[in-house]
Design brief:
Strand order of the largest sheet: 6-5-4-3-7
Structural class: alpha+beta
Shape: extended
Number of strands: 11
Radius of gyration: 25 Å
Order of helices and strands: HHHEEHHHHHEEEEEEHEEHEH
Strand content: 15-25%
Number of helices: 11
């Protein structure tokens, strides 16, 4: 099975140390040591020259290979002690102070973050003063996170008012929370008493939340493996075909799909599966002239009607 992005990142971090200690290492020996194929190793080596110790790109890893041996030309430069520039230190300090104020943060984690921030302030010098004049305010999602986190720890049921973008409506329901996780956004996995099924709720779509006195009693469920992402379509889900122009090729990067065929002019014909095809109507509106839904026909018609209604509303204004 192909390694996921986390596995590859861990491997490449180890690879940097390994190559520093073995200048001119043979590709075959390194691949064997890491238990990967030579093609996988070459793929890692193609990525490493785009990595470095600063976002500015002035100290990238100068690593290359002739297919037989691997050469690292600037290991001493990269090994120098890391020195943060003023804007880098400011960004870290502002972010650290903001995270420390999150209501859902456990006290042990908060204390550790405060101590780390104090050390960074001492090292940053004048940059610390500039960062003190900046602040970041998180959205109300933080309060929802705290309530869900408390409900999980106290094994309590939750009442929520939740916005469903696919149906464009608010629903009220009681749920037994199972866990919190983050995949791009922060989510709650829970047993929904309205649908009597496992459901995933995005925290920034929770309009209102309340902890109930009733104990949570979700059924025994095997936790989903999220290493491949939140959306993992089933072979039984309805098939949807979307055609996009060059400006819509990003769809193939953000939506899991069965296939993506090249079209004349740089476009793609993307075939994907989803348990809720109606949710892709918003995608069609977002694409505009860069794409269209081909099938199923009922979804294509619905997207076309929604676009027509949106245009009419603009013309009215």
């Amino acid at each position: 099975m192909a390694a996921n992005a986390i596995d590859q990142t861990r491997r490449m971090l180890s690879l940097v140390t390994y190559l520093r200690e073995r200048p001119g290492a043979h590709v075959a020996d390194v691949a064997r040591a890491f238990g990967i194929t030579e093609d996988e190793l070459i793929s890692d080596l193609d990525v490493l020259p785009m990595c470095g110790t600063s976002f500015r790109g002035g100290d990238l890893l100068d690593i290359d290979t002739d297919g037989d041996r691997i050469w690292w030309h600037n290991p001493d430069d990269v090994a120098e002690p890391l020195r943060l520039a003023a804007d880098e230190a400011t960004a870290l300090l502002v972010a650290a102070r903001a995270v420390a104020t999150l209501p859902g943060l456990r006290e042990g984690d908060r204390d550790a973050l405060v101590r780390a921030t104090a050390k960074l302030e001492a090292a940053a010098g004048e940059a610390a003063g500039a960062s003190a004049r900046l602040s970041v305010t998180f959205e109300s999602e933080g309060g929802v996170f705290a309530e869900v986190d408390r409900a999980i720890s106290e094994r309590k049921r939750l009442w929520v008012r939740y916005y469903s973008p696919a149906r464009d409506e608010l629903t009220e329901r009681e749920v037994d929370p199972i866990r919190l996780f983050a995949v791009g956004h922060t989510y709650m996995e829970a047993w929904c008493r309205l649908s009597e099924a496992r459901r995933t709720f995005r925290l920034d779509r929770v309009a209102e939340i309340r902890i109930l006195e009733e104990a949570a009693a979700p059924p025994e469920l095997e936790l989903r493996d999220l290493s491949e992402g939140l959306v993992q379509p089933s072979a039984d889900d309805p098939e949807v075909v979307v055609e996009v122009g060059p400006g819509g090729r990003w769809v193939a990067e953000y939506y899991p799909h069965d296939r993506a065929d090249e079209l004349p002019g740089g476009g793609l014909r993307i075939t994907l599966r989803t348990p809720d095809p109606a949710s892709l109507k918003r995608l069609a509106l977002r694409l505009g002239s860069d794409g269209r839904i081909v099938s199923p026909a009922v979804l294509a018609d619905s997207a076309r009607e929604a676009a027509t209604a949106a245009l009419a509303a603009y013309e009215g204004v």
